[in-house]
Design brief:
Distance between the termini: 11 Å
Number of helices: 7
Structural class: alpha/beta
Order of helices and strands: EEHHEEEHEEEHHHEEEH
Strand content: 15-25%
Largest sheet: 7 strands, mixed
Length: 247
């Protein structure tokens, strides 16, 4: 839809509303595997609430989408919230429960970019932690950060929009058409203080892949769950039709 909306190419990122999804990888969740953010009932209820019931409830609360990322992309979504954990040597997305391997999700993004002309995608990698409800939110080690960054580069490398010594202020002043002039691009925001602290390259600055990632930048608005893709498509079409003079 960006290619079909030429006026948008003259606008900068703060002037564009990107349809986005909350916990974008929560289209499939493993009921038998808890994530770092799993909320467990009080121990006082253990005698009446089984793990199976807890997992069923967690699934109902955290299952956010019916479509995988490729389906979301083809439906118009361009901003993704990816929460990543590490389990037994593999990176996974998660939301209460463990989701698909991150490599599967990145393959969806890569596939879409390969079939696109001048689309722009933002992927926020955040909530980087290991553990379950018994041992929550253990930060990634430097080695895990390095392996995660390498995985991102391996899957998305040809389409990554690098910093190249640009600041976030520089990024927000560039017209979209200039960013995607040579083809589709993905902006990966590495939202972790071990990498960026207050917008400045931090503890992971030694990594050779650092130039491919961006810190978080100020944004307003929100993203949503999309349990039915048709609803998302309808909302995008409605927005474009009702704001034609601005697009």
């Amino acid at each position: 839809w960006m290619t079909l909306t030429p006026k948008i190419m003259a606008r900068t990122l703060p002037q564009i509303s990107l349809p986005g999804t909350h916990d974008s990888g929560a289209y499939w969740l493993n009921k038998n595997a808890r994530g770092p953010d799993f909320i467990k009932f009080s121990d006082n209820w253990d005698w009446i609430v089984s793990d199976e019931i807890e997992h069923d409830i967690a699934y109902d609360v955290t299952h956010a989408h019916e479509q995988d990322l490729l389906g979301q992309l083809r439906g118009g979504i361009r901003y993704f919230d990816l929460r990543v954990t590490w389990r037994d040597g593999v990176f996974y997305v998660y939301h209460g429960l463990l989701g698909r391997p991150l490599s599967d999700v990145l393959t969806h993004i890569r596939t879409f970019l390969e079939e696109s002309e001048h689309e722009f995608v933002t992927a926020v990698v955040s909530h980087l932690a290991t553990g379950t409800n018994e041992d929550n939110d253990v930060p990634f080690t430097p080695s895990q950060h390095q392996q995660l960054m390498q995985l991102l580069v391996d899957h998305l490398g040809p389409y990554l929009y690098p910093r190249n010594n640009q600041t976030t202020s520089d990024l927000l002043a560039i017209p979209l058409g200039q960013i995607v002039d040579a083809g589709p691009k993905v902006l990966v925001i590495y939202a972790d203080e071990a990498f960026f602290k207050d917008g400045v390259l931090g503890a992971a600055s030694f990594d050779e892949n650092a130039e491919w990632f961006w810190p978080e930048y100020p944004a307003t608005g929100s993203y949503t769950n999309t349990t039915r893709l048709w609803d998302t498509e309808f909302e995008i079409i409605w927005y474009l039709n009702s704001h034609d003079s601005q697009c």
